[in-house]
Amino acid sequence: MYFDDIPTIPIADELLDRSFRRAAKKMREKSNKKRANEDFVRAITQATHDKLVSIIQSFPEFEQLPPFYRNLCDILFGMDKLHQALGMLGWAAKNVRNVGKSIVRGMRRVDPLIERKRAVARIASIVHRADDALRYLNDVRNVLRKLPFIDMNEFTVVVAGYPNVGKSSFIRLVSSAEPEIASYPFTTKGVIIGHRDVERRKRIQFIDTPGLLSRTEEERNAIEKQALNALVHVADLVLFVIDVSEHCGYSIHAQEKLREKIAEIITVPMLTVVNKADIKKMEDRFNMSTITGEGVKDVLNELLRQRSELIQDKAIDIRSELLVPKMIRRGRHYWIKTEY
Ligand SMILES: Nc1nc2c(ncn2[C@@H]2O[C@H](COP(=O)(O)OP(=O)(O)OP(=O)(O)O)[C@@H](O)[C@H]2O)c(=O)[nH]1
Ligand SMILES: [Mg+2]
Predict the structure, then answer these.
(1) What percent of the chain has pLDDT over 70?
(2) Do 171 and 285 fall within a single domain?
(3) Angle value at C-alpha 239, between 233 and 1, nearest 5 degrees
(4) Which pTM does this prediction carry?
(5) Are residues 160 and 296 in the same domain?
(6) Each residue of 173-217: pLDDT tens digit?
(7) What number does the ligand 1 atom closest to the CA of 165 have?
(8) Which pairing describes strands 270-275 and 202-208: parallel, antiparallel, or unpaired?
(9) Pocket test for ligand 1, best of 169, 192, 220, 255 (most atoms within 8 A of CB)
(10) Residue 261's domain is classified under what CATH number?
(11) Whose CA is nearest to atom 3 of ligand 1?
(12) Is pLDDT of 330 > 50?
């Protein structure tokens, strides 16, 4: 994944400790007593600078990420804030290097021990100014590492609808995912991935999303924005779940309005399914109940039918390069994937 290589990010004191230890080790290995202080300043400058740079480099280029992940980072952390924090580390790395260099340059003319102490104090003060950024980036790193991996090559069904209509109950029933289910709205707070192997080589990637309300984009919170992000950027097909029994706490009118809004923003087909059919059904729609299991198989069959249709139309990957077969790396071999 894109975020697996980001190591734990140290706070300022830990980073300084580590640099001091490295510098001290280097000094033990070198025996030039005359230039010991100069070498020490050089070593601590280098260790601190390099660590700061390696932290920056461990983050991916956010602009190069697939749109789904790029938007998700923006929704979760704010791209400006992320860039600011990384910029702060860049500033600190540059300043540490400049301060270290200039102190080393003037060291022979003055008392080296005093200059060594001055270098340590200045470097520590610069790194401490980046402490907030280091702490923030470590929090970001911890969230990034837990983000679900969405395989952009899989046929992907994004399940959407009002809160509490039974989206997660459906995903739990038909896929490998085990999302939380509860009788209150907004139980699901982020996207959750599950898979279903239907027949040999026929696999569906299901994405559970947080409930959406029918409201303007400006009114949407970060949780809802994650659902929209999945709908727009990863869906090959949207499964819109409605609850005509209105046990979810929302009117069928509001749910229909949301359906229309989603239809406007997506470029992929949408299948509407009525859940909680054990309580109330709707004519001319797929009706299912995740509690009794009735109708669930029909919904899955319909998804498979649409999947085959989409593959035949070669319209499967309208998210990225249309009709361009994708290279997938497996072990040391490259395979060209043309069929799902
Ligand atoms: N009677 C009935 N209740 C159901 C059915 N499916 C789900 N429920 C109940 O509806 C409630 C909400 O289910 P969830 O699966 O958490 O709903 P959700 O759409 O994922 O909700 P959010 O994550 O909040 O958006 C739970 O109390 C479920 O037990 C069904 O087919 N029939
Ligand atoms: Mg849910």
Answers:
(1) 90
(2) yes
(3) 40
(4) 0.84
(5) yes
(6) 999 999 999 999 899 999 999 999 877 778 899 999 999 999 988
(7) 19
(8) unpaired
(9) 169
(10) 3.40.50.300
(11) 276
(12) no
Q: Rounded to the nearest whole angstrom, what is the distance from the C-alpha of residue 239 to the centroid of ligand 2?
A: 14
> Average pLDDT for residues 52-62, to the nearest whole number?
95
Q: Does the pLDDT value for residue 327 go beyond 80?
A: no
The verdict on 131 and 187 lying in the same domain is: no
Residue 339 vs residues 154, 196, 308: alpha-carbon distances, Å: 10, 17, 10
C-beta of 290 in contact with ligand 1 (< 6 A): yes
Compute the distance from residue 230 Cα to the ligand 1 centre, in Å. Answer: 20
Say which CATH number the domain at 67 has. Answer: 1.20.120.1190
Distance of alpha carbon 83 from alpha carbon 76, whole angstroms:
14
> Would residue 231 count as lying in a domain?
yes
- Minimal-distance CA residue to ligand 1 atom 21: 164
In total, how many domains does the chain have? Answer: 2
The yes-or-no verdict on residue 336 having pLDDT over 90 is no
pLDDT at 208: 96
**Residue 275 to residue 282: CA distance in whole angstroms:** 10
